[in-house]
Amino acid sequence: MQEEAGGSQAKKRESWEWIKALVIAVLLALLIRTFLFAPFIVQGESMETTLHNHEKLVVNKAIYFMRDPKPGEIVVFHADATRDYIKRVIAVAGDRVEVKDDQLLVNGKVVEEPYLERKEERAKEQGELHFTYDFPPVEVPQGHLFVMGDNRLNSEDSRVIGPIEVSTVVGRAEFTFWPISQTRFTR
Questions:
Q1: Rounded CA gap, 186 and 73, in Å?
Q2: pLDDT (0 to 100) of residue 84
Q3: Catalytic residue among 46, 61, 119, 158
Q4: Is 87 a residue of the active site?
Q5: Is the pLDDT of residue 26 over 80?
Q6: Which residue among the candidates 61, 87, 155, 158 is catalytic per the annotation?
Q7: How many angstroms separate the CA atoms of 86 and 51, rounded?
């Protein structure tokens, strides 16, 4: 009888240890997903050829607790209450942005965009006259970012919705993880 009671106590202790471990694991997962990293699914073609429709990637949510987004970074932000967008930061507060003759200008200087080379080549092959339509100068207000998709002819971005508030930014896209054969850093 005493052996059965001792065995029962040991099983209870082991069960309790498993329950504690599972609760801790769930809490850690929730904390990581809430404050550090989150998965995101690319929806649409606005970031082609950098990112593709239905690719899955990891978003770093912690980085912007330490600093603001910088030009060139790919960010996920709340476009409205039900949708998140993924776009590239083009300019920050105080910058003046415009496009003339397919050239992006920030504060009057041409911005080199090597991530657009393949898309520009494809547009020319298809007979497109412009890769990015001209738009007049826009000054980015304080607390805002100017964002654009890499697929400039097929992107609802700051040219349409205006500069976005920094407070709507969820995080920076770090790397794709699905499909596995396309795993890569997004910078």
A1: 9
A2: 87
A3: 46
A4: yes
A5: no
A6: 87
A7: 9
Where do the H-state alpha helices sit in 46-171?
63-66, 117-125, 158-161
Report pLDDT digits (tens) over 73-83. 999 998 887 88
Quickly list H helices, the chain: 2-31, 63-66, 117-125, 158-161
* Ramachandran angles phi, psi of 15, nearest 5°: -60, -45
pLDDT of 35 strictly over 60: no
Q: Give 9's contacts (C-beta < 8 A, 6+ positions apart).
A: none
158 part of the active site:
no
d(CA 159, CA 135): 8
d(CA 167, CA 163): 12
Token pair for 152: 């400039």
Residue 171 has pLDDT above 70, yes or no: yes
Q: How far apart are CA 90 and CA 145, in angstroms?
A: 8
Q: Are 131 and 154 within 8 A, CB to CB?
A: no
Sign for the CA dihedral angle at 122, 120, 176, 78 comes to: negative
For position 174, what pLDDT does the model report? 86
Q: Are 135 and 98 in contact (CB under 8 A)?
A: yes
Task: Tell me how long the chain is.
Answer: 187
Residue 38 near residue 77, CB atoms below 8 Å: no
d(CA 133, CA 55): 27
Chain mean pLDDT for the chain? 82
